[in-house]
Design a protein that fits this description.
The structure holds three protein chains of three kinds.
Chain A lengths: L1 H31 L16 H6 L3 H34 L3 H15 L2 H15 L8 H24 L4 H8 L4 H30 L2 H6 L7 H8 L6 H27 L4 H8 L3
Helix pairs in contact in A: 1-11, 3-6, 3-8, 3-10, 4-6, 6-8, 7-8, 8-11
Chain B lengths: L13 H18 L2 H12 L25 E6 L6 H7 L1 E6 L3 H10 L8 E2 L6 H6 L34 E13 L10 H9 L6 E3 L3 H11 L9 H15 L3 E4 L4 H5 L5 E5 H13 L7 E5 L4 E10 L6 H11 L2 H11 L8 H5 L13 H5 L1 E2 L7 H16 L1
Parallel strand pairs in B: 1-2, 1-3, 5-6, 5-7, 9-10
Antiparallel strand pairs in B: 3-9, 4-7, 4-8, 4-9
Helix pairs in contact in B: 1-2, 7-15, 8-15
Chain C lengths: L13 H4 L7 H21 L3 E2 L7 E2 L6 H8 L2 H33 L2 H16 L2 H11 L5 H7 L8 H5 L8 H25 L3 H9 L4 H30 L2 H6 L7 H10 L4 H36 L7
The chains are: A mainly alpha, B alpha/beta, C mainly alpha.
Pfam family, one (chain B): SBP_bac_8
GO molecular function, one term (chain B): polyamine binding
Subcellular location (chain B): Periplasm
Amino acid sequence: MKKLLSVHTSMALWTAAVIAFLFTPIVFLMAMSFNDFKSIFKWTGFSTRWWAHMLDNTSLTGSVRVSLEVALISTALALVLGTFAGLALARRPGRWTTGFIGLILLILVTPEIVDGAGQLSWFVRLGGPFREGLMPIILVHTVFSSAVVTLIVRARVAGLDARLEEAAADLFATPSRAFLQITLPLVMPAVLSGGMLAFTLSLDNVVSTSFVSPAGVTTFPNYVFGLSGGIIRPEVAAMATLFIAATLLAVGVVALVLRRGGQTGTEIAATFTGN
Amino acid sequence: MTRQSDTTRILISKQAAQRLADSISRRRFLALGGGVAAAAALAACGSSGGGGSTSTSPGGTTAPGGAVDKKLNLYTWAEYDDPDLLKAWGDISLTIFDSNEQAVQKLVTGGGSSGFDMVVPTGPYVPQLAKAGLLEEIDKTKIPNFSNLDSRYTNQPWDLGNKYSVCKNWGTTGWFYDSTVVKTEIKTWSDFIKAAQTEASGQTTVLDAPPDLCGIYFWANGIDWTTEKTEDLDACEKFLVNDFASHIKAFNSYPGVDLTSGSFALSQVFIGDARAGLLGVQEAGEDVSRYKWGIGAPMTELWMDNWCVLKGAKNRDAAYDFINFVLEPANSVKDLNYHGYNTGIVGIEDLAGDIDFKDMVFYTSAAQLATMQSGAVNSAQDRIVKIYSNVKAKAGG
Amino acid sequence: MTATIDARPSRRRGWLRAPKFLLAIPSFIWYVFLFVIPVALVVVNSFGRKIANVPGKVDLGSPNFDRYHEVLSGSFKTLLKQTMFTSLLGTVLCLIISLPVAYFLAFKVGPKAKTAVLALLMVPFFANFLLRTLAWRIVLQPSGFVSNFLQSGHWFTFGQALRSSPLQILDTRSAVQIAIVYNYLPLMIFPLWVALDRVELHLREASKDLGANRVRTFLQVTLPLAGPGIVAGLILVFVPLSGDYVTAALLGGAKGNMIGAEVANQYFKAQDAASGSAIAVSLIISILLVLGVLAACFLFGSKLVKRSRSVKVVL
């Protein structure tokens, strides 16, 4: 049994090392938010002054607001589109499903730089509202995230018993009633985790955003990307830390809700990562 | 566009000079025909309809009389405005670009001026933006402090009569290096190239801007960097791709602070960025003498970045108010001390007093100025960008 | 995993069967409008020509292959090869690093510990992509903590070379390689874990009962069953990674440049959507070529496995 233990231990150690690797830059980033110096790339001493500065920098806070608005709206859109499409895929399989899933997979694997470049050319041709305000950014964010939501919802619905909905129909529920009272609660875990993913994907997006964002509209990551040639102040790290904390809180809450809904931790993790 | 290589100076009153400049510029514009005439027409009647691709909302909103809402959305370079000064004026949101090309791209494809109120392009790019119908003609009656500007920095060849632009500041390009790595002193661009190929090979950065990259070759070889000759451009490309690209570590427009943290040994820099690097070293309490800097020689760039108000700016009057605010000598000094460039205000050198690394800000002797030449956006522009792309691809391959 | 609906007729159930893909129509329109048309436009634009001073638009007057000649004649070809190499290496590294982790998660830990480990693996994934990439600049800084630590006397494992000079990884291809593996690792671990997790325990036990050792069980039972999941993981990592330009732009400097950055460069600096499109299309073709070659190898390999039954690691 000694040998087995060593395989087990070495794998555990390997996993621990991978986790440490994954946390390394994040820990460094968080630490740098308490740097005294004006750049996050050189530590000179401990200070909390940049946490105070953070809210004074209207460019930074403005970009965060844009990011949050874009993420909220695009997540809502992605959820509506993705839930419907996921339901259709799971409950109405047919010859069309192959093509549709193919399209979704294509969206998932096309390098973002290609989408972004095409979307810019397309929006420039369309002009008007497609080159103003948040709309172009929201639109491009929904493409990828609704594809992800679709797959998650489809996986969830496929695992459910279709007879529940049929029973509702047999019991003379109207379609909308059956949807709201039976189907929706059943797919809720998928919608929740899909929403979390869509929200994160939107907040993470840099590439297509940098292509399609109209003059004067900057998201948080794109603001930082713009700064990246020059000096990056610890206030950016402070904001990032705040973001990480908020995301963790949100993930935690969603996980808790899912757990209440009777899912195991493993299932929750699987849905969270889109599997 | 067009560049005037020799200027004639005449002595007349400011107003007269203004009118004269206006009429000259209009005639010049008209003489250039085509798209430029459209720009002149645009300038004359103030409505939209330039030769560009974008539609602009006509007129723009005029703020109600009295106090302006002190809010601005500014599109500018990194580390270019003192945050405290901005706060002293009002609420300003900054978005950063790292090259003129990028700024022009975003503005021209970006649906008019839907978002930004002001942009800060380098002189030669002003006509391109004006031609695309993106710039508001500046109402100088709303900027009384315009008269604080030294006449050497107004009425520039690319914008005669300051129709669309007001000087923000100007500066030059040179090098910045770590003398523990680059032990031979750098005095000319040829020395720069030699150091990049030897001592600092693989540790050298160049500016992430196409004209400046090509400038290294032109300045070192005594070629006018606004050249449009195919053979010059061919030679430049051949040299940079074959003999220079492989030594480059990064294309970075703001390497100053990174250099002093050991990431690079030799950098082509805008001098103010080298100063920012040295200020950082000083702030961290380390040895400043380790790092050397110099203004490009025998020839180098003179660039001037300008406040331009975008057509249809939501906060147009606020923009005027802000320009007027920064042209106030006391404010200008603060701004200068932050970004390290001459703001062109009359007597600014004396006002600046005893600021750190003062020689990095003021280099106004006639002999020094004679070595600096403004860039140009001309028929070579596409080629210059192509050379830059090829150098980039080669450097990574 | 697909459920089939009961086909017995029922009047009230009519709505359940009626329009087959009605609910998917909004998505379909959405994707055509925001994905199919734009990507098609990239392909179309790649045959065009830049219009001077009008960024973002392309002259399609006389379609030709000139842009492709430019892309494939210059230094871009080398850069394209480099990008493919970096991406392949990155994908393989991700696979090698992920496999033990996924295996550990799937077979070696109890449910409680599993939840904890999964949560730990997931947290970094939810931190902002750009910032966690940028943060590598802090970690790898030549004057930073890690560099100083390596140079200090406390560190014995590494040779004198590392100790004598500051860390010089930033702005090199190595930095990009590290960050790429970092960024795409979760995308590999989770599909692998799910794939392995679905391999029924009793199949593996049966294999062991029949006398197969651990390695043989893994290679002949577990791996083939988890195969599709692994392939999915590989594609999900390799393809986006090849088009990534943010990581290269933040950490690669001149040396770690990736072809994606050149696409962006053509749009943003050169104001040349035609050349940018041509590079983008070349990128897609290269990706498809690499995937095609890999698929061929994979098929050939699995045939060999079936035929010989004496297994070596294929993939």
